[in-house]
Specification:
The protein is of the alpha/beta class and 336 residues long. The chain is 39% helix and 18% strand. It has 2 domains: 207 residues, inorganic pyrophosphatase (n-terminal core) (Alpha-Beta Complex), CATH 3.90.1640; 121 residues, Diaminopimelate Epimerase, Chain A, domain 1, CATH 3.10.310. Helix 2 packs antiparallel against helix 6 and helix 6 crosses helix 8. It starts with a helix and ends in a 5-residue tail after the last helix. The relative contact order is 0.10. The structure holds manganese (II) ion (MN).
C-alpha cells in the first residue's frame, strides 16, 4: 500500500520544477535500472530535470532497457565528474531499489553529505531512516511495481507512455521471475496489466531478458551443471562452486553467472541452491531457497550478507574447500 501522507508530501515537493537525481544500488539489475529509468522519464515529462547515477557499471545484457544511454556511470571517469556536479546541484535525490546509503559504495559519501530532500522508493527489508519521504514496503515484489503505484497515486497514470511502461515491466518480471516467485501477488498482476495496457510488450521483454546468452556462456552453464553441481543433505541442498581458473577458462564477464543458481531447482527435492564463485580475496555466495527456508537470516548469521527470504547474497573469507565443508554442515540447521 502506498502511504497517502507520503504522496501528499511528494506532490508538494514536486509542485515546482526541480533538479532531481536518482541513485540506485551498485551492479544494478533490471529492477534497479527499469524503475530508475521509468521514474526519470516520468519526472522529465512533469517538467523536472533528472539525472540517473549508477554507482558502478551495469551488465551489457541490460543495455536494451530504454534510457540506459543516459546513465551516469560513477565508475566511468568522464561520467563521474558530471555525476558529482549533478549531486552537488540536486534539490531532490531519489533513492531507488536500495535503502542503506552506505551501500551505494563510491557514491555513499556524497549521498550522505547531501542536504537535498531525499525520497526513498524501495522494497527491501530494514530501511534506514535517512529520507524525508520513505516509500518502503516489503510486500511489493519490485521497486518498478511501487513506482507504477506512486505515479498512479499522484494522478498521472496517463503520463505512463510505452517507454515508461516497458522499463517498469522489465523490473517487474525480473524480480518476480516472470510471475513464478512467491512475491507474485494480485497487485503484481494488476500492475502488469496496467503496464501492458500502456504499451509494454511481454514477448519483447521476455526475449530480451531470457535469451541473452552467447555460445560460450551456454557451454559454461553446461559445464557447471555437468561437472560442478553437487546435491547433498538427502537431496535438499545443491551447490555449484566456480574457481578463478574456471572463470578464466570460460572468460566469464560481469553477469555471466546470472540465473545459474536457479537451475538446481529443476531437481524436485532441492530446497536450497547455492553458487560459490571464487574471487581474488574472497568467495562470493548467492543463496536461493524455496518456501520457508530463510536464506536472508542464514546469510546475515554466517556470511556477512542478506537480502530477501528466498534470495540473498554473502561472502566467505575461507578457501573454497573450507567454505563448502562448513556450508554443508551449517545448512543442516535450516532443515531441522
Ligand atoms: Mn528490486
Amino acid at each position: 500500500m502506498i502511504n497517502h501522507d507520503n504522496i501528499h508530501a511528494l506532490r508538494m515537493l514536486l509542485s515546482t520544477p526541480r533538479r532531481c537525481v536518482i541513485v540506485t544500488h551498485p551492479r544494478p539489475d533490471a529492477d534497479a535500472l527499469g524503475s530508475s529509468l521509468g521514474w526519470k522519464r516520468y519526472l522529465e515529462l512533469k517538467g523536472h530535470s533528472a539525472s540517473f547515477i549508477s554507482p558502478t557499471h551495469y551488465t551489457a545484457n541490460l543495455a536494451w532497457i530504454k534510457g540506459t544511454e543516459t546513465i551516469l556511470d560513477f565508475e566511468d571517469e568522464k561520467n563521474n565528474r558530471v555525476a558529482r556536479q549533478k549531486l552537488a546541484e540536486a534539490e531532490v535525490i531519489f533513492v531507488l531499489d536500495f535503502n542503506v546509503q552506505a551501500r551505494s559504495e563510491k557514491v555513499a559519501d556524497l549521498l550522505i553529505q547531501s542536504t537535498a530532500a531525499k525520497v526513498m522508493i524501495d522494497h527491501h527489508q530494514q530501511p534506514e531512516g535517512f529520507a524525508a519521504i520513505t516509500f518502503s514496503d516489503t510486500t511489493y515484489a519490485a521497486t518498478a511495481e511501487m513506482v507504477y503505484d506512486v505515479i498512479c497515486e499522484l494522478g498521472d497514470e496517463k503520463l505512463i507512455d510505452a517507454v515508461i511502461a516497458e522499463d517498469l515491466y522489465a523490473g517487474l518480471v525480473a524480480d518476480t521471475g516472470f510471475f513464478q516467485h512467491s512475491n507474485t501477488t494480485p497487485n503484481v498482476f494488476k500492475v502488469a496489466s496496467g503496464l501492458i495496457a500502456r504499451g509494454a510488450s511481454p514477448d519483447y521483454v521476455s526475449d530480451k531478458i531470457n535469451n541473452v546468452f552467447d555460445e560460450r556462456r551456454l557451454h559454461y552453464f553446461g559445464y557447471a551443471l555437468l561437472e560442478k553441481l553437487k546435491v547433498v543433505n538427502d537431496g535438499r541442498v545443491a551447490y555449484i562452486s566456480i574457481g578463478q581458473s574456471e572463470a578464466r577458462r570460460f572468460n566469464l564477464q560481469l553477469g555471466d553467472n546470472e540465473g545459474l543458481v536457479n537451475y538446481a531447482f529443476k531437481v524436485s527435492t532441492v530446497k536450497l541452491s547455492v553458487l560459490f564463485s571464487e574471487e581474488r580475496d574472497k568467495v562470493k555466495i548467492s543463496f536461493r531457497s524455496k518456501d520457508d527456508i530463510d536464506v536472508n537470516a542464514f546469510s546475515r548469521k554466517y556470511y556477512e550478507g542478506g537480502g530477501h527470504r528466498n534470495a540473498s547474497g554473502g561472502k566467505s573469507m575461507l578457501s573454497m574447500e573450507e567454505t563448502e565443508k562448513l556450508f554443508i554442515e551449517r545448512s543442516k540447521e535450516l532443515f531441522q
